[in-house]
Amino acid sequence: MPNRHYQGKERDTQEFIYVDLLPDMKRPRQFNVNIILIVLIAVGLSWLIIYMPLNTRQDELDEVLEAQNDLQSQYELTEQIIASYRLDADRIDFMRDIEAIDELQSHYYDHKQILDDTIRTVHSDGRILRFSYNSFQETYTLQVSYVREEEFEVLEEYLYDLDFVESASYDSVRVPEGPANVQARVIVEVDPDAE
Prior knowledge:
Layout: E1 3-5, E2 16-18, H1 28-85, H2 89-104, H3 108-122, E3 127-134, E4 139-146, H4 150-160, E5 165-174, E6 182-190
Antiparallel strand pairs: 1-2, 3-4, 4-6, 5-6
Helix pairs in contact: 3-4
């Protein structure tokens, strides 16, 4: 500690006063250990907060990129096969359009045959004079001929037994004079999704 001479009123000149000019300081070893502990805790927390989620996301990204590379390779291989067979891509697309239309088409001819068989089941003299299909309203309109008018009521019951028929009705009954058959318009509403 530095020594200074101090002369005061009450003391002799020869007396020494010791003055500590440096403040109390922590030991250097203790100071360094605290810093090291703080740095270690900060590194551990940053590993938990940053590295773990980042590592998980990186693994997901690697899986997605691997799948994308596989799909890209498969696409290029398919393109090479198409090029080697000299297939026209427009024809392939056109074929896909045809397949999509085939799925949407109605069973018009099958339904017509079933309706014709049902009309003949009621009475063997029954005939379809006219047959039309309205795709927007999903209805068949038939002009049917029978010997007696009562057979139209029986036909209506038979039609409800068919899977694709949602409703059936008849109207515009014409009873001609003489031996001619009775004619009526039969309207059949169908379910296009039924087989």
